[in-house]
Predict the 3D structure of the following.
Amino acid sequence: MNGLSIIDGMVIVVYVAFTAALAWLASRRQGSADDFFTGGKSMNGFAVGLSIFAAAFSAAAFVMLPREGAYRNWSILAVLLMIPLLITPLLWYVFVPLYTRLGVRSVYEYLEIRFHPRLRRLGALLFFGYAFGWLGSMLYTLIVILDAIIGLSPTAFMLTLIGVGLVAILYACSGGLKGIIWLDVLQAITLGGCVIVILLLAVGSVDGGFAKVIEIGHAHSKFQLADLSAGLTGQTSIWWVLALGLFVYLPGYTTSQITVQRYLSMSGRKELRRALVLNAVVATAVYFLFILTGTVLFVYYQQRAGALPTLANQDQILPYFIVHDLRMPGIVGLMCAGLLAAALSTLDGGINSIASVLTFDVLNRSETSVRASRLLTTLIGVGVIGAALLAPYIGKNFIDQITAVASTFLGLLLGVYVLGMSSRRANTGGAAIGLAAGAVGIALVHLHPGIPTWWSGAFAFFPTLLVGWLASGLFPPPSADQQRGLFFQGRDAEEPSTYKGTISED
């Protein structure tokens, strides 16, 4: 759309320099390999709470949320309200207590304890599919957005993609999980400040201010949380809300190593409660502000032209407004800094999480050196860059592509975890058959053009759970002692009797 001014460039350079300095300080405090993947289990709730939010908030969300507020309605907010209203209580009372009782370092360790070592490795492979697909698509989407803002030649596009990927690798290697969490704190603050500044400038551009935003937005049903008249395939329907909330966001918070790794970096219920509450509050507030910004842009263009601008991609609405309508020195640089904050907080944590799963769940290394951990992290980061380079060959709608990848793999994982945590008759054979049934369900979604890909999670979850429960009747049940302490039992459940925190070699 436009080039960077000197002031914009200075804003970006200052941001990158500050984060690089913080990464360097974190690397000096790196103590052991255990710190590299677990943060020494000494992180405080304030830092982890902001880190959970920053890791979940991506560059795609930076442009997708304003798009929803501008072109559709606030249905996406109904999805996001599940974080404080449903997901956080489930984490506090069900999932995290179980993980901490077991003393696991990887969330997929549970699958070995409850079922079999091979299911643990299968869970790790599903996570790899999700994480590489998600992170690669996210990195490519970031560069597409930057291209829309500042204009990049094909060579500059490629070099920028590789450069951002290398910066993410540097951050992931610098201080391990502890360093990543503190970098995420800075990224979260940057994101919050960025959206507040952009929102205030957008409201200031509307004739009549915020009162006019409420009036015109209400007249056009922009504040509607769900369209009850839309069918099963409507992208603002209650079904869309449930599909994303239950089968993308819920498993993302409960069965993805990227988030669970952060819960396990703390010791004590007080810090955990602080982290979960802070994440719920900050995430809801920032998501709300981004959606509101989109609605403000809708009102702004209604007043100026009677309609939103015609764009090749609706995700470009916020960049278009900043470049073509605000034209304020430094604001483009601020937006680029916000996009980098959103992307890097997702990428560096994701790369570290993949490395931890590969170390603990696949290579069966209970102990490893910091040097080896950094080498492994670097190789995984290169793999993420490779996945980003392949992203344009998979599809052109990158936001939908990211949602499809997440719901596909996370739906399978949620299904097998709920099966293991809720049914005493569930066993390894039944779980394996259930996962196969879930894979068939996913294939049906992708083979049937009339089914939106955001239903992938539901088509993965229900067959995995139901077929897994039924198929378990074909095999001998696990012993009662073997299952002790491995179910939905609340915060004061009994300790598991058979697991000692070792890693099986089978």
